[in-house]
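Our consortium's second objective concerns turning raw sequence data into structural hypotheses that experimental partners can test. To show how far this objective has progressed, the report includes one record in full. It was chosen at random from the queue rather than selected for favorable results. The single chain below, 279 residues long, was entered without modification.
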Amino acid sequence: MIIDTHLHLIYRGVLHYPWLAGVPALDADFPYETYATEARRLGIAEVLHMEVDVAEEQMEAETGVVERLSQSDGSLLRGAIAACRPESSEFPAYLERQRANPFVKGFRRVLHVMPDDLSETVLFRANIARLAGTGLTFDLCVLPHQVGQAAALADLAPDVSFILDHCGVPDIRSGAFEIWQAGISEIARRPNVTAKLSGIPAYGDPENWTLEDLKPYFAHVAQSFGFERMIWGSDWPVCTLGGGLSTWVGATHALLSGVSLEDKARVLSGNAAAMWRLG
């Protein structure tokens, strides 16, 4: 079984995605049904939806759209990682509303497109600390040069579980390995941070990346975090930019081919099931 912890659904007729105008290849509808048909063929049995950076006033509406999809017969959807704005004074009230909804499993604030110091404000950090004891996780989507800020958040909220998206967003295409490598080694020292094996084909050459391009990045994440702190995500439909869902699942199995069946099961499903009480 595979648990996909990073599915994006795009419904442009219902929700507004300001960033899509700058990414023509993704400026289209990507509905649940399209994903689910392929996912079931690949052994994906349960899915968490990852927020898609909708317009701020629609954050709760996005969760509602996904929750309604989860209520259809046979749906793979088991929960949502909801959008949030920890830099806002309205976050505490927002948090309480989301806590009342068991479908919400965690939060993400996209940081890799924001000023580096956003997460360093007193209010942002205080609001992230409010997640302690709630069971709600926080996904970190940061560039390699922002990993220091991400590590600081993990230090300031040691009772919050953080997930580092996309293996820390390595710049595979340009081969800038060392800066990324050092950041991964450092943030992995925080026991409350888990690495997400997701998204990395999109950071290589979209037309010509190979498994050999991905191997050193996977190997360093595995060495740094261990398989006890690694989960898997498809990053669909972003993964369609680098071959698609089936290609990424195939590459994942190839990357994991040298590890034990127990560790493979941890990465593909066991760790996520334990973290979010799935399965």
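The partners drew two points from this record. The two ends are 9 Å apart (CA to CA). The chain has one domain: 2-276. Both points have been shared with the crystallography group to help prioritize constructs.
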